[in-house]
Amino acid sequence: MNHTFSKNGLKIPSIGIGTWDIQGSSCINIVQEALEIGYRHIDCASMYENEKEVGKGMSNSRVDREEIFITTKINTTGWTPSKGNGPYLKNQEITRSFDKSLLDLDSDYVDLLLIHWPRFETNLGDMLEILYKLKDEKKVNEVGVANFNSHLLKECFDLGFKDIFCNQIEYHPFLSQTKLLEVMQDFEILPVAYCPICRGDVARHDVLIRLSEKYLKTPAQIALRWIYQQKIISIPKTANSYRLQENIDIYDFEIEDKDMLEIYGLERNQRLVPNLEINELKYPFD
Ligand SMILES: NC(=O)c1ccc[n+]([C@@H]2O[C@H](COP(=O)([O-])OP(=O)(O)OC[C@H]3O[C@@H](n4cnc5c(N)ncnc54)[C@H](OP(=O)(O)O)[C@@H]3O)[C@@H](O)[C@H]2O)c1
């Protein structure tokens, strides 16, 4: 049901459920429900403070662990919604923080571990070394990054880390990431789109509404299919059962080339994550 992309022999379902801002029993229930209706990819993060609930949702679903692709992210900045701005994690705390993620997720490993944001106390080389050590220890199947621009990706390569699995970035019809996506393609880094339905904005756009009528789909499905046809993975978040089903029902139609182009034309440089509260640095995004 959920089509996959693959790299290094590891298959990643092209749609995952995002879990940012879902807490408590709604998180447990939506993760369980997602798995029961066919999702096999869950995106979470230490920063979201809900890995325990994600773990509970997984175990309630009774879907085998091996069938599920779990991504989590190291919060190197120490920032959490409940505690506000914290100090950067020191090297040894990074491994400890990840061990807590595993404990909370009730799993011996994750499929993919990302650096959540390119800010850390230590330098990039040390940081990647710590993550790749976790991979050697088989606690992590693949290592990736999030919110990295093309310069930082190049730096990873220059440091000898040429096997970055993915870069998770904001991507939707209202934000072109052309330059960054080209660099990622050159480096064979899989793109993962966060905010793929622009936090609901796609449902209110005239062109996407018109195309939804043409294809007998919803505007969110048009946006997710448009991303899928570019061979980009997406992780829409919903805490609503109806939209959960909607967001994964995108495999039974194809958007024509001329309509793909029209959607590319909706770019308006709209960023939902322009500047995390923790990010005082002036950071070029591409
Ligand atoms: N790496 C990073 O720095 C980073 C940053 C941001 C996000 N992420 C990840 O990416 C995931 C997705 O991003 P996001 O949550 O920011 O934005 P999103 O998935 O684009 O949008 C989620 C919002 O859209 C609504 N929605 C969901 N399905 C819909 C549909 N079919 N039609 C209309 N509205 C719909 C949801 O409300 P309901 O819940 O009421 O349906 C929610 O308010 C996050 O949950 C997180 O896992 C990562």
Description:
The structure is a single chain. With 286 residues, this protein is of the alpha/beta class. The protein has one domain: TIM Barrel. The protein is 37% helix and 15% strand. The chain has ten helices and ten strands. The protein has helices at residues 24-36, 51-61, 91-105, 124-136, 150-158, 178-186, 206-215, 219-228, 241-248, 257-264; strands spanning 4-7, 10-13, 17-18, 41-43, 69-74, 110-115, 140-146, 166-170, 190-194, 233-234. The strands form two sheets. It has an eight-stranded parallel beta sheet. Strands 1-2 form a two-stranded antiparallel ribbon. Helix 1 (24-36) packs parallel to helix 2 (51-61), helix 2 (51-61) packs parallel to helix 3 (91-105) and helix 7 packs across helix 8 (219-228). The longest helix has 15 residues, at 91-105. The mean pLDDT is 93. NADP nicotinamide-adenine-dinucleotide phosphate (NAP) is lined by residues 18-20, 43, 116, 146-147, 168, 194-200, 203, 218, 220, 235-240, 243, 246-247, 273. NADP nicotinamide-adenine-dinucleotide phosphate (NAP) binds next to helix 9.
Which labels suit this protein?
binds NADP nicotinamide-adenine-dinucleotide phosphate, TIM Barrel, single chain, 286 residues, alpha/beta, two-stranded antiparallel ribbon, 10 helices
Helical element count? Answer: 10
CATH architecture: Alpha-Beta Barrel
Percent of residues in helices: 25-40%
According to CATH, what is the class?
A: Alpha Beta
Percentage of residues in DSSP E strands? 15-25%
- Mean pLDDT comes to 93
- Structural class, from helix and strand content? alpha/beta
Query: How many domains make up the 3D coordinates?
Result: 1
- Low-pLDDT runs: none
Anisotropy-based shape? globular
Annotated CATH topology: TIM Barrel
CATH superfamily: NADP-dependent oxidoreductase domain
